[in-house]
Records
---
Amino acid sequence: MSFSGKYQLESQEGFVEFMKAVGLPDDLIEKGKDIKSVSEIEQNGDHFKVTVTTGTKVLNNTFTLGQESELETLTGGKVKAVVTKDGNKLKVTLDKVSSVTELVDADTIVNTLTLGSIVYKRVSKRVA
């Protein structure tokens, strides 16, 4: 299955606690918690372009599986990391945050971010 497509956030768990843990200011957490972000994924073999739009904030990341890339974090910082694929899961660790993005079926992506014992889970459904 290809990850390519446009997905809209359907539900999320642990947003506030996770964003506080990564150091996002309270006013941005308050603004962002009800916004339904849209993720656009373009997959071409092992090369990916991911664009996540949350309100006016746009996060762009481009990477090739197994190669070090500079990736933008949720707080706007840049870190070098290697994204790997394990079956239908994309895995990466940015700073202390572990991210697993799983293509559950043709229309559903589940992204789980973990920082220590804090887990932030996002479920997005295909819209295009």
---
Amino acid sequence: MGDVVEIRASVAAQVAGFVDAGGGVGERSVLVKTLGHPEFTVGHQMDKVLPAASLAKMILGVALFEAGGRGDLDLDERVRVGDLGRTMYPSVLQAMDSETALTVRELCGFSLITSDNPAAEYVRALLGQERIDAVIKDLRLDSTSFPAGFSEPELGPLGRANVTTAEDTLRLIEHIDRTARLEPLRHYLVNYLRNDRIPSRLDDDVQVWHKTGSLRGVINDAGVVLHPAVPIVLIFLTDGQADNVRTAQEIGEVSERIVRTVAAGAAH
């Protein structure tokens, strides 16, 4: 194993480079934590409250499986595709006949694998705000607020009411990672189809379970790189970005450098 101090310093330099690449425009919050050896945490503005966007869908998943585990909700209840809301964004559900019935469990899967908004909004309404807030409280996500949904009118300025921090997101990720009954969520997230950020420059055989979030000027991504040398949590929260596409590319570039650095150190 390489020198932990040296590896940590190298990762810190990569994080600083990503922050500096923003040119002082907007906000960039970063958190890197290894879940094995070498073990360390590096971050920048980890307690900065920023828009969560679709990262909040992971909270829905936790709340749904918690409710199902208690017997409060039947995750195998079937829902007609035609009963879901509509969206101006591309949706796999649009390929299905309106009479096709999916289970609540499968709708949760769609909301996390494809970030489908109508599926997420159905799950949110089914849960109700009280169950969602209970998960936020139980996990001590003290700077997280999730009052808005994913209907079309809420995807603009109203959607910015959903906020979190990198520190809270780490607590959420670690809970999903270590909780046996949440294995379905990990399965959904490792099959996430929007891979233009953290996984974009990693080798195809390196699995990543993660969730992105996007609004105007907001490019987020958070999850776990399941590198065989050592699992690595990577969290990127941003706001006020001038070029969403470029910020997404920069997240991919710095993620690749961080993973390469940590994996090389873990191998020695």
